[in-house]
Structure formats: structure tokens, C-alpha cells
Amino acid sequence: MELIDREKEEMDIKMLSPLTWAYVGDSVYELYVRTYLINKTKLKPHRLHIEAIKFVKAKSQADILKSIEDVLTEEEKDIVRRGRNAENHHLPKNADPADYMYSTAFEALIGYLYLTKRDDRLKEILDMCIQKVDNNDNI
After folding, report:
1. Percentage above 70 pLDDT, the chain
2. What is the extent of the structural domain holding 53?
3. What is the rounded CA–CA span in Å between residue 99 and residue 84?
4. Is 70 one of the catalytic residues?
5. What is the pLDDT of residues 4-61, one digit of tens each?
């Protein structure tokens, strides 16, 4: 199997739909949150699920994104803008449309960083997110 040149690979990733980045970002963030909760607590699976919801619901993700926007690079802000403006025809019945758009933008950013293998930056942002939710149950 021929390895793809890193520069070409990143260009290919930039051409993906922001909804594709969000699809990946949703999984990455969920796994990070679940791993964090397992390491931090001794809760049983049902209670772990209840705790995870605090982190992954659309309102929380929207609030997290708004709270970290100032530390994002220009490129990351562009990814967020593209994710927020992506035309998504699915709106969950329990989420405010504005929160859902920001939530999609948040997941797009996480997915983009993961796909472009910016692991240090991804971890830095995910750690900020966990800290924000842990320090404020209303986020």
C-alpha cells in the first residue's frame, strides 16, 4: 500500500464536508468523554451514560465552543464557521437549532483535528472542554 503524502492527505481532508468532520468528531469526543469518566469515577454503566450526557448534549457542546473560541487559531475558527454553516437537514426534537449548529461546529473541529493528526492540539482542546464542563454543571 502506497502512503499518501502528508500535504496531499491534509488537502483531501480539507475537501471533506464539514458534516463528515462532525461525524468523526462526534465519535472522538464521545470516546474521550467516556474514557475520562471511567478513569475519574467508579460509576456503573447506566450512571456513566447519565454523566456523559452532560458533556455531549448539543447545548453543552455549543456552550463549550463559545467559551473556547478566543483560544482557537484562525484556521480552527474557519473550520468552526464551516461546520456551523453546514446545511444539516436533521434537527433533533430536543435541541435548539442554534445550539445544534454550534454543536455541529464543535464536532467538526474535533473531527478535523483528529483526521489531520493534530493530536497535541486535539488533546489540548479536549482537556479544556472537560475542564469547562467539570467546573460548571450548567454548561
Report:
1. 90
2. 17-135
3. 10
4. no
5. 555 658 778 999 999 999 999 999 999 999 999 999 999 999 999 999 999 999 999 9
- Of the candidates 5, 26, 70, 99, the residue annotated as catalytic is 26
Would you tell me how many other CB atoms lie within 10 Å of the CB of residue 115? Answer: 20
Domain count, the chain: 1
Cβ(105)–Cβ(81) under 8 Å? Answer: yes
As a whole number of Å, the end-to-end CA separation of the chain is: 45
- pTM value is 0.88
Q: Could you give the CA distance from residue 27 to residue 83 in angstroms, rounded to a whole number?
A: 16
Predicted local distance difference test score (pLDDT) of residue 56: 92
> CA 32, 36, 40: angle at the middle one, nearest 5?
175
